[in-house]
Amino acid sequence: MRLRQLPCPRPDPAALILALLAALAAGKAAGEPPAAPVIGRAEFVDRRDPPARRVLGAAPRQTFDLGLLVFNTPWVAAGTPNAGRRDGLGPLFVSASCDACHNNGARGRAPARADGLSNSFVMQLEGAAPIYGAVLNPAAVPDHNAEGQIEVSWTALQGQYADGTRWTLRQPQYALRKLIYGPPPPDAVLRPRIAPPLFGAGLLESVPRKALRDIRRHQAASMRGELPAGSFGWQAEARDIEDQTTRAFAREIGVTSRLRLADDCSPTQVACRNAPNGGTPEVSDEFLDAVVTFQRELAVPARSTLPPGEEAAGSRLFADTGCAACHVSRLPAGTASGPGMIDPYTDLLLHDLGPLLADRTQSGRSVASRWRTAPLWGLAHALKNEAVALLHDGRAASLEEAILWHGGQAEAARRAFLAMPAEQRQLLLQWMGSL
Ligand code: HEC
Ligand code: HEC
């Protein structure tokens, strides 16, 4: 085949120099590779069938699909006839499947129950391990007793914006009721938590720690975060996705896996420890690996698009208000298919957001608490169909409430938000709702 000769334009030296100057002005030296593209987002056509973040080959695709099945599977009590490989629930548990709390990978639901709590809610306990273990189990299989129940009551907290508009927040107070072994020690810490979204977990897992150290070094001293020991959970305590998954299996569902060969039964809970099991371990390696792969490959829902003017103005407000110092828009991710940039809006560092958000002891004393900056990607998806429950215990029912709860290292950002006129607040909220 004969190639058609294309007319080749002669390079114009003046144009070349102008282009070079423009590149230098943009902070790029000539010859520098173009910025890596933003990866990880995909259109969620059907919420019940969340997509992978990249095209998968046949074998990994099968593992991904199996992982979603395991994620959705409700576990049943050991010895249930025809249970297949999904028996071993409890004997004490919070919910029977991953999906019950993280619906198809999404964040926990807003409270809809008569007791004012969400189905996706977990009360972790610190300092109560000899009696109740790491979480309070409000459910049990037949012939076993639930450990107790959680009660929440709300008090109103009011204030106003600089322009005079009033706002109200609801502050939760938690108490443990119907405790079958009596109250834990007064200084035991109640750690209320709601299920976070799992979208993009594999990409967050792949961010090099060096990048986080660099961010930290450039943060103003008043806002400087701490590099956590782990990566996952509201306080970044779990090492990686597999670690968090096996914790959830053991504590929230009561099934054992190769990394955690015991349920959340404390030394004094003899009946719990001696209950028949559904195999050793109860979750097969094949199921565990599949559910981990599913989470590693899970995409982040695509952003919704705003008119270019609003996009630019919204992201400028977000930066000018100081939000972007912690909710960092771009992080490098190292994935099997090479490095890429992600847009999670987090620094993955721990920050103190003040006593109002801190955990409290049984006796009501607030204990210094540091939280991983919550990634804001996927908010458009979260806000689309349902009422939301934001922050670590789901107390905020809107973006506006979530911002108003910020204090401590984010106090200056909160004040800047309070000082904004109404139209700017609306613009910022609208922009965040598109992430
Ligand atoms: C009863 C509700 C509940 C169940 C069931 C549950 N989770 Fe969670 N999940 C949570 C809560 C609450 C957290 C936050 C934990 C923390 O902050 O320490 C969480 C955190 C996570 C995280 C960390 C996400 C992040 O970005 O920090 C992952 C991953 C996860 N869960 C996976 C799973 C898997 C897989 C299962 C099933 C094996 C599961 N979860 C079952 C409530 C639940
Ligand atoms: C000092 C760091 C810091 C600054 C500054 C900051 N945030 Fe946050 N943000 C956090 C942390 C940490 C959390 C998680 C707190 C929790 O769950 O209790 C959070 C949570 C949130 C959430 C809830 C997300 C979720 O998934 O529940 C929203 C929304 C949010 N921030 C928006 C903002 C906005 C808007 C600003 C600017 C006005 C801002 N933040 C400034 C650290 C910061």
Give me the secondary-structure topology:
Blueprint: H1 13-25, E1 41-42, H2 58-72, E2 76-77, E3 87-89, E4 92-93, H3 98-101, E5 121-126, H4 129-132, E6 139-140, E7 149-160, E8 166-177, E9 189-194, H5 201-205, H6 209-218, H7 241-253, H8 270-274, H9 285-297, E10 300-301, H10 308-320, E11 331-335, E12 338-342, E13 350-352, E14 360-361, E15 370-372, H11 379-385, H12 399-405, H13 411-419, H14 422-432
Parallel strand pairs: 1-10, 2-3
Antiparallel strand pairs: 4-6, 5-9, 7-8, 9-14, 11-12, 13-15
Helix pairs in contact: 2-9, 7-9, 10-14
Residues 223, 234, 321-323, 325-327, 351, 353, 357, 371, 373-374, 376, 390-392, 399, 402-403, 406, 409-410, 413, 417, 432 line the site of one heme C (HEC).
Textual characterization of the structure:
- The chain has 435 residues and is of the alpha+beta class.
- The chain has one domain.
- It has 14 helices and 15 strands.
- Strands 5-9-14 form a three-stranded antiparallel beta sheet, with no helix packed on it. A two-stranded parallel sheet has the order 1-10.
- Helix 7 (241-253) packs across helix 9 (285-297) and helix 10 (308-320) packs across helix 14 (422-432).
- The longest helix is centred in the N-terminal third of the chain and has 15 residues, at 58-72.
- It starts with 12 loop residues before the first helix and ends with a helix.
- The model is unreliable at 1-32 (pLDDT under 50).
